């Protein structure tokens, strides 16, 4: 298992280098977040041993025992939908919340972060494909949300996250990623240079994320193999 993860990471890094050559990007600018949902705490340890510094989880209940088991050996990112009743736990467990998609959620995060005297790093999740089953704020509401969240003292707003549309149509995925890149640049004009992360691309579409300006990609299957349903 350990060898497999290390091999997969080597292959992934090769794919990142190729994509960066193709799209004129610097591979050193691309941060990998290894998504360990549905994999055991041991997988987190193995990924860290293979050089990973950022770990992502999508459910608070699943992440809590795993993070408590391994300790703070990486930066932990929350990438799944966050319910307000899980925020208190989330601000204790995670370094970054990538799935901020409403002002109401932002207020909860801000309040609980203040209670424990923390400033928590957040990215706003954009739903640029318009898919109704998906979480995230629509593009036309993103800049307004950025402005409002930027005023909250216990949130540091550092970027945007998006999940590409579930389609084989590469042009459609790129179109959606392009919208997010534009919003990212506008967000930077509002927040300033600390708004520096565009989290965009997963195992099957990260090359398109790289093509459209992503500097963070979230990889599960490509590192740990397929998840059980
Ligand atoms: C599961 C998940 C990923 C990783 O997906 P893979 O296709 O396995 O790379 C990335 N981002 C989010 C938000 C996820 O839920």
Model description:
The protein is α/β, with parallel strands linked by helices and 229 residues long. The protein has one domain: Alanine racemase (TIM Barrel). The protein is built from nine helices and eight strands. An eight-stranded parallel β-sheet has the order 7-6-5-4-3-2-1-8. α3 links the parallel β2 and β3. α2 crosses α3, α4 crosses α5 and α6 packs parallel to α7. It is globular and about 45 Å long. The relative contact order is 0.15. The model has no long low-confidence stretch (mean pLDDT 96). The protein binds pyridoxal-5'-phosphate. Pyridoxal-5'-phosphate (PLP) binds next to β8 and α9.
Bound heterogens, unique: pyridoxal-5'-phosphate
Find the CATH superfamily.
Answer: Alanine racemase
CA-to-CA gap between the ends? 19 Å
SS strand fraction: 15-25%
Total count of helical runs of at least 4 residues: 9
Q: Which CATH class is shown? A: Alpha Beta
Radius of gyration: 17 Å
What is the mean pLDDT?
96
Shape: globular
Please report the total strand number as a whole number.
8
Following the backbone from N to C, one meets helices and strands in this order, namely HEHEHEHEHEHEHEHEH
Q: Give a quick account of the main beta sheet: strands, pairing sense, barrel closure.
A: 8 strands, parallel
CATH architecture: Alpha-Beta Barrel
Low-confidence stretches: none
Structural class: alpha/beta
Our count of domains comes out at 1
Approximately how much helix is present in the residues?
40-55%
Strand order of the largest sheet: 7-6-5-4-3-2-1-8
CATH topology: TIM Barrel
């Amino acid at each position: 298992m350990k060898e497999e993860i290390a091999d997969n990471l080597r292959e992934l890094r090769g794919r990142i280098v190729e994509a960066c050559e193709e799209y004129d990007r610097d591979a050193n600018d691309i941060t990998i977040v290894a998504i360990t949902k549905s994999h055991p705490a041991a997988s987190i340890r193995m990924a860290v041993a293979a050089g990973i510094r950022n770990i992502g989880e999508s459910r608070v209940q699943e992440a809590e025992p795993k993070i408590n088991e391994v300790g703070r050996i990486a930066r932990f990112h929350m990438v799944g939908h966050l319910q307000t009743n899980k925020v208190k736990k989330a601000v204790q467990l995670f370094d970054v919340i990538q799935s901020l998609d409403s002002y109401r959620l932002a207020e909860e995060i801000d309040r609980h972060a203040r209670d424990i005297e923390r400033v928590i790093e957040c990215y706003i999740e954009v739903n640029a494909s318009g898919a109704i089953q998906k979480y995230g704020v629509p593009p036309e509401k993103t800049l307004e949300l950025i402005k409002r969240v930027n005023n909250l003292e216990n949130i540091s707003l550092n970027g945007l996250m998006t999940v590409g549309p579930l389609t084989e149509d590469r042009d459609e995925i790129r179109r959606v990623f392009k919208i997010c890149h534009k919003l990212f640049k506008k967000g930077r004009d509002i927040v300033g240079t600390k708004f520096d992360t565009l989290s965009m691309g997963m195992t099957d579409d990260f090359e398109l994320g790289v093509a459209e300006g992503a500097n963070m990609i979230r990889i599960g299957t490509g590192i740990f193999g397929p998840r059980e349903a």
